[in-house]
Amino acid sequence: ERERERETEREREMSEYDKICERVQEIVKDVCYRAGKKIMEYSGKTTIEKTKSSDVDLATKVDVECEELIREAVRNAFPNHSFLGEEGVAPGSQASIDALEKVVDDEWLWIVDPIDGTTNFVAGLFLSTVSVAVSHKGVMHTAGIFHPHLDCLYFGSVYPSPNAVCISGGVTTPLRVDTAAELKEANIAYGTKQGSSPHFAPTYRACEQLAATSRSLRNLGSAALHMALVSKGSLTCYFQLDIHSWDISAGALLIQLGGGRVTDTYGNPYTLRTRNVVASNGLVHDALLAQLRAGNALDIDNS
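Above: the chain's sequence. Below: its structure in token form.
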């Protein structure tokens, strides 16, 4: 009798988990589309509301509105879930590290960049995305990156089984990373913080190494877009130093579910705390890490 009661309780718990997972997936998709609609409406038509960590770190009222839209949807559906959004955190690396540390191990955590690529958004360049990630007990669970200008939603989840797709124009296709087996066949994306020598100096040392060994180098100005394109196979790999969790957490899951590999610059597996990120199709990963080592580009330079 006692065993039957325990089994019934396990079934009840599993049923509740199933319901949460399904609702999480619904909300991720919904808020990506709704925030993306705002990006489309205001792209190239809005003004800079403020600068954050530097004169080139921009924020607009639309960033704030998109984040509040997402925060409200999460709060209404899951009042007990934790929420980490870019616009709610003070500027700078240490502030983002501290903010993540407070919530990183919570049961359910939503990690949001309402507009990744704000500079592109202000300039009217069609290279901005909405990035929404959800972790469960410190491990990535569900992710959505929406590129509204192309109507592409990159979506993935570990529930009910690991799977990632691109949804565009009503057509759903599986995400699969690139098949390039050597760096000379690789299209490599990178990112860096403008106006910050500790960041761009090592990045450009790495680029100097890679310019001679890869097919191409690209910087589209959106970490989330870079990672989405790696998950789709349009880019082979991507790296960036000192990048925030809301920029890369969704993309990290999509790449892994698409068959790729995500680590830090030393080759340690990705976690939510990773800040120096290397993402690839897996086949060229070790070669890319070697080039970063050769360029002394494993971390930002000490000031």
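The chain has eight helices and 14 strands.
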